[in-house]
Amino acid sequence: MKILTTRMEAHPTDSHTLARHRATGGYEAARHALTSMTAEAVHEEVKASNLRGRGGAGFPTGVKWGFLPPDIRPRYLVVNGDESEPGTFKDRQLLERDPHQLIEGIIISAYAIDCHEAYIYIRGEYPRPARRIERALAEAYDAGLLGRNLFGTGFDLDITLHLGAGAYICGEETALLNSLEGERGYPRIKPPFPAVEGLYAKPTIVNNVETLSNMPWIVENGGAAYAAIGPEGSAGTRLFSLSGHVKRPGNYEIVMGMTFGEFIEEYGGGVREGRAVKCFIPGGASAPWFTGDQLDLPITIDDVGRAGSMLGSGAIVVMDETTNVVHAAHSIVNFFAHESCGQCTPCREGTSWLEMVLARILRGEGRPIDLDLLLDVSDNIAPGLGWPPKMTTICPLGPSAVSPITSILRNFRDEVEAMIPAEVPVA
Amino acid sequence: MPDPVKITIDGVEHEVPRGELVIQAAQDTGTYIPRFCWHPRMKPVGMCRMCLVEVDTGRGPVLTTSCTLTCSEGMAVDTRSDTVKKAQEGVLEFLLINHPLDCPVCDRGGECPLQDQTMAYGPGESRFVEEKRHFEKPIEISELVLLDRERCILCARCTRFSDEVSGDPLIEFQDRGAYTQVLTFPDEPFKSYFSGNTVQICPVGALTAKPYRFRARPWDLEAVESTCPHCPVGCRISVQASQNQVLRFLGVDNEPTNQGWLCDKGRFGFEYIGSPERLTAPLIRNDAGEFEETSWATALEVTGQWLQDIIAESGPEAVAGLGGARGTNEDAYSFGKLLRGVIGTNHIDAQLDDGLDPQFLAAVTPRAAIPDLDTAGTILLWGPDLKEELPVLYLRVRRAAQEGANLIVVHPRRTGLHDVATHTVSYAPGRGSATLSELRAGTGELAAIKTLLMESGPVVGLVGRTGYTEDPLLAEAVAAFVRDLPDGTILPLARRSNVYGALDMGLAPSLLPGRAAVSSQDARMSLSAEWATPIPEFTGRDAAGIVEALRERQIRALFLFGADPVRDVPDQPAARQALEAANLVVAIDQFLTDSSRMADVVLPAEGFAEVEGTVTNLEGRVQKVAQLVAGPGQSRPPWSIFEDLAGTLGSSLGAVSAEAIHKEIAAVVPAYRGITWEQLEWGPGREGVVVPAETGEQPLRYVPVDIGVPVRSARLALHSARTLYDDGVHARFGLSLAQLAPGATAFLNPDDAARLGVADGALVRITGSAGSAEMEARRDPTLAPGTVYVPFNQEDGGDIGDGLEVKLEVLS
Amino acid sequence: MSWTADPRVEQILARYPDKKSAVMPFLYMAMAEHGYLTDEAIREVSELVGMTSVQVSSIATFYSMYKRERVGSYLISVCTSVSCAILDAADVLHAIEDEAGVPAGETGDDGVFTVEHVECIGACGGAPAVQVNYELIEGVKEDKGRELVRWLRDAAPDTVLGDEMQALFGGQRSFEWGPAEGEGATGPVPALDALGTTGGSS
Ligand SMILES: Cc1cc2nc3c(=O)[nH]c(=O)nc-3n(C[C@H](O)[C@H](O)[C@H](O)COP(=O)(O)O)c2cc1C
Ligand code: SF4
Ligand code: FES
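^ thats the input. predicted complex w/ FE2/S2 (inorganic) cluster below
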């Protein structure tokens, strides 16, 4: 069962063009929604689909749309194509290979929420996906699919592509809005949530690329049909990015419910050189890691949550038995330290402190007390070190840097200890 | 409390206003929550995370910042739970890991919130063994402010202040994450009239002020609360001194006036107090025409003798007094009592031909107060550029505009408020009356403005002179227009510090103390009874008239009390000639100014921070100034000098102390009746006392007139107005500010510049009513066509005068 | 002609309710012209968007792709985030630094190369991933990294094309890229006509 990747698989050379899109039924769902459904009816279908956001937080999309205050206009729809979470590269494929599917999804969603201005925010390091979107937008405008009076219904919609410039934090929805407004990409204090006060202080829906790419199918087949796919709470298909020590890394669209082990074997072809899985990250760099013992866990939002981690952005990173976990953890902590926006003291100072301590351990200059220090510094960013994390910060970026620390110190403490020299070397 | 809700803070229930920030509500009910980034006068950002508390709104405790959370019914706040304590210790430890341990050499040491909170909430020893972040040690970001980025804790108070409050965002965060730093842009220094506020609100020693740097340790300072002496906004300040040297002013938060802020002229304008140029002994001009130091006794005796001779020969009408707007009300009152009551002259003026009609300033109604700006629907500013002349009032108007008030600015040139104004009107000097007629008629572009003024009240009219070539009657006509709006009040604007107090004390030709008209028989009678002396009835001359009469030798003796007409009168050559022509000039001053230098007797006066007394701000708010240091040498409080001068004329003012004079004022001056010395003591919640705009005993009513200022076919109309920094006496003798005056420049509309063939930077000669001056020309597209703008009172600015028409010649 | 006179400036401004929003696309345009964000470039942007220079530079320095210092003709970015890190991205980076003669974070004296290590560029399935002027090459091994540097130096292409470099120096890809593209980058800014903003003429 595939929804998002059918066209690109069937038509590898031109799935991104308007001609191919139309030849394969494209924009029919949008036409149907605009010409024969009310906005409320479209919204109802999305609610019925039980689609949960694919950007990381997994919030039900239909419910989120319902938070828009009824009387305030304009409203904005912002498409989150900032995809920067290490391990994640699924939106890139959707943007590059089927941009019209996204644009159609935007038309449907904008109609459902009565919005006439949409922005697609694509990370600056994605010029190729951005070019494909740019051309697709031009095609759509030329064909009258965007702009004034769509499908003769009087509904107007403009879509603007906005390029990021190298800042992971701009994937966080409120930082993204600040970035779009020409501010530094600082996450905002919530509440107010964007649905109430978002872009230019107006009600705004922020949705991920993959989330919106599902809309044509949902309109065409009905929300109930979507909800029927997969286990409860993890409806629909989902595009997972698989990377690390697997034989066949890549994006795979699956129905949720299979185990991680099955997924890695069946799609990833197993671990390279037949080695064992030492550990894996189930949902992008922010997520706490699972060990090789947990491969039997089913891939569902709820199962993974109960086991103390998250499916997040749908990125599975597999590490085999040869992996130096301190090195891997350092790479992730370094990422968060580098990407901290810098407003919260615990995130700005704490993530770089953690990074420095790990780097010192990697250099062979660790001290026995560093292990507890790492945990205590982490505790000051994410009190209690639980999951989902409590936060001393505005956004979850800071606490995300704690995930690899607790992961290695809970599961591989002996390995970390083994890297500490018996005596502190004289500096 | 309008809409109270019940919340518990650490288990104790309190009633607090709904929607108030938890951090504020806690503080008001006795629980201090530590903080760095939050400042009560700026929007919360919740960045530093120091103010974390646990809050339960029914779904279990959640860690959240109390500076971003508003109070709602039933909320339970825990400020000291174990989780909270651990989080706060954590934040402090994080802040300290990169903070240098240079407290012993840091200006902030001893009054540093970071230091204090580390003592109170911090961890013991540092567990951070890595290399600290390094930046180049203090860098100069302006002429006044230094920045040490290693000490900075990135609370964004300074950057937010400069963007949100003062509107000159010249410092901003650069880079990201742990590399974030505050910085200016290359070649664009932090040139802000308000930069000192950032030093004051910096919670560490990252920003320091050059005038104060390394001058003292906080624990060596003595402090008193007082009122800033630099303009009539009347900002509340803390004056701080060590070893009889005033070392700094800090802003104190006074709700109706400054809300904690000061302008840099106010803040750094303390240096003149300790200037080595201060007068320390009386001076008398000897036979060779040179000043000679002498004793007080001799100086007074000689002055008395000379005065008596002149009065005997030419009558009391031959004596005049200028000044009094820089001292206290008690000084002004004594000066007036000396001139009117003892000598018997009505030739008195505290303004120097650069202000407005005294009856207008003192008595225009309905009068607005500063806080009315916060609730105004529409603000009409037709007067000086507030940023240049009344800076802290500018901050207030700016905020009101940002928070939704309509702001209409009418001025010949772009002002500091243009960027937040909803409507701006530009006109060439001389066309003011025509512009007002258009506004009154609501024609053309002014229709929308008229509608706002009629329909979006309450309207506060900020009315004054846009410049010195403006007919002062225009302001009265504008005020009349505002008065007749459905819901209009007026705040008349003048700029010299205690000019409102001086006028209230009767330092105007036509006014007796208490804004009573000299022409009123009743008023004269009642004052005469109080003073036990006849009050002269003849029509007094104003400053321009006094200058004129001196030149014509109708007036022969002149008292200058803190007045420098040679500098301050728009027609400066005339002022110089007047002083030359006088038979006797007695200057009571702190410095040898261009004017006191021409005096025959100079009596050294104590001034701000050296004397106590009261002053009155532009709203009519009476506030105290306090004494902290002793004046230099033999200088004395002005009121006591006036008392002794009265003595040499065989009389007495009955002045024994500032407090005693105040008591007399409170008895004699109707509007001030009943104000007690104790009432004016500073302390929490004390905001001074506003003198009522109208009292039953004011015989005078301001009568607006519609004027027809002639629109002359000037080749170029002159616009001449003050800038914050100029060649004024206090700035000149304060080292830090002296260098900041912009200098003399002729600004021209680009079309005029092209028409006249003036290149940017060309040397031009401007010839006006009083003389000519040479200066550089600059283009200024914000000027109304046909106008040349020359900032008033700049070094090398020459004497152009206040005539409307000027001639411009291109010299290079 | 200066970029500020480019008709796209007005088009971009028209896309947003507030001109401040145009700061990012304008920074790209200014950088495309000046090679990096000189003080002059920042001032140009600040005038167009109504911010002060320091505010514009605050935005510019927040994002890692806006460069305030001179950048070489070829900006080589090597990803060192987790998926690449565990597949020896560090070795690839060292090989490239060595071959280019430029340590990460710096620009060679001859102005040919700037080498940097970057955080995740969304090519984790094609680890280790490298970009040249933001044109992507996936599955770059140490030796191929060296070859890439030599090729850039010798062939000195005016325009770098992702497809061409992938074919020459790449390996494992995150996914099938689809048909080849003719567009590529001519400087250290992403190759995109509108440089960040596009849409209908509206
Ligand atoms: C630090 C951080 C980074 C994020 N990055 C992304 C991202 O790159 N792409 C994305 O779609 N959502 C990202 N998110 C999630 C968004 O904030 C937001 O939840 C999402 O765009 C909502 O869309 P959805 O409901 O369709 O998932 C991030 C969140 C955080 C806290
Ligand atoms: S947690 Fe980090 S990234 Fe998130 S807002 Fe705070 S400082 Fe910025
Ligand atoms: S004072 Fe609340 S976060 Fe700084």
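Chain B touches chain C at residues 163, 168-176, 183-188 (CB under 8 Å).
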